[in-house]
């Protein structure tokens, strides 16, 4: 999801177990055109609740999301007080430690740690072929050489 889409998305927390996406849609449609309503399911083993108690509502326009936050934060739905706030992109969307992509495969890491061919050749010349593992080819056990 792009940065612009996240700005048009609100987080709705404090949902009662009986709340469905239709209830959320009906409660938030007065503030603008809704693109999507997402209620993450409760995947924990043995869980009795159908969802995790929060939802994301994506509006067509960022202004509509702001209007929904202003009007629905601290509102009551099915006996529960809602916490409605601007949605934040998940860390995995931006990369970093919580990403599902290895850090060395992320563009930001590659840009920061990239080594050019000239740097590699200069590094090779600096070592003059002295590889730390050189001369150990004949060993088949760890530890000092037997005498």
TrEMBL record:
<keyword id="KW-0694">RNA-binding</keyword>
<feature type="compositionally biased region" description="Basic and acidic residues">
    <location>
        <begin position="114"/>
        <end position="130"/>
    </location>
</feature>
<feature type="domain" description="RRM">
    <location>
        <begin position="8"/>
        <end position="89"/>
    </location>
</feature>
<dbReference type="InterPro" id="IPR012677">
    <property type="entry name" value="Nucleotide-bd_a/b_plait_sf"/>
</dbReference>
<dbReference type="GO" id="GO:0016853">
    <property type="term" value="F:isomerase activity"/>
</dbReference>
<dbReference type="InterPro" id="IPR000504">
    <property type="entry name" value="RRM_dom"/>
</dbReference>
<dbReference type="GO" id="GO:0003723">
    <property type="term" value="F:RNA binding"/>
</dbReference>
<protein>
    <submittedName>
        <fullName>Peptidyl prolyl cis-trans isomerase</fullName>
    </submittedName>
</protein>
<dbReference type="InterPro" id="IPR035979">
    <property type="entry name" value="RBD_domain_sf"/>
</dbReference>
<keyword id="KW-0413">Isomerase</keyword>
<dbReference type="Pfam" id="PF00076">
    <property type="entry name" value="RRM_1"/>
</dbReference>
<feature type="region of interest" description="Disordered">
    <location>
        <begin position="109"/>
        <end position="147"/>
    </location>
</feature>
<dbReference type="InterPro" id="IPR034168">
    <property type="entry name" value="PPIE_RRM"/>
</dbReference>
